[in-house]
């Protein structure tokens, strides 16, 4: 048999080792040891990890790389970030948003991200962000899947132009209904916004992804409403609650009830570990709350948890470099998920779990899947997170679209090796 590509001697995220991956016409046609046959290109993975691509399931591409315009977020707080976005939004041009978004997509691909769900603000009558990102989506479709969420940043009811503009954005081709119920003037308005937004999604046959309870207030209850509306409208598996940071502050009795409701409704949960860690708990003295949802407990209940990056060099977060392994690394530390299974679950949260939330078809390392995968300078998922491993090669439909050399350092130390590769520091496996 002949193939376009064979990647040989790969380790896979599920623990299989020494596997060959054969590709024909942009699809994986075989995954097994010792595949024989001619191929247009053969690559030896040398026991490196080959994983499905990373997915950023929560991002704001209309704001990315805007850091410093019109000024810096001096306090580094969520509230100043929101105020700063209000100053920047009237200054946006379609051309500037496209340029920044395209540059960000370049960076994302180089880091092995091949799918992004981006919220786009609709509280601007010009809908500059919507126009720009729809064009970007078309430009990058050959190498990156971009899914857009119509996001009423200032509140669906709180801002009088939000409701009509959300519908305009959906009519233009935005695929997911967004919202921010905790940003409404009252708890009741927040509840009604969840109900209304879910009804819009049900009527249009769309998914829902709400910024939900992104607050330290233990009385914020909008994820409870989202779970209820999901079941009432038959939206199981099509809704996501993003952030859910209030879950860190609620009491354990209510948490046990709430998480059971989320599981019953099949709501996807999307924490943003890096951003949530620095934006929440700002009113605390000591001890300071981490501001992350209860990832271990949600995972144990079988709830689909997928990590997002949220921001990258924008009004809300001055750091970031499109590295989903950083999000997984932060989650491991912040949620005490240092068990073997916990660390593997954090890797799944930036790959297969995120693909499930996204609704991505033909994703994975298996026959019939798209030949989209990443070869990492690590041998397994845990090591990839520990090293934040270099993306040696990023494949889209079986074609290499990005390459990065292995991490090797030259030493000048008497009596010591001349070179050092961090990947060589892997723990020795028990026989």
Automatic annotation (TrEMBL):
Positions of the Amidohydrolase domain: 41-390
Signal peptide: none
One GO-annotated biological process of the protein: cytosine catabolic process
Domain of life, per lineage: Bacteria
Keywords, in A-Z order: Hydrolase, Metal-binding, Plasmid
Native source species: Agrobacterium pusense
NCBIfam families recorded: PRK07572.1
Protein name, UniProt field: Amidohydrolase family protein
Pfam family, one: Amidohydro_3
Transmembrane segments: none
GO molecular function: cytosine deaminase activity; isoguanine deaminase activity; metal ion binding
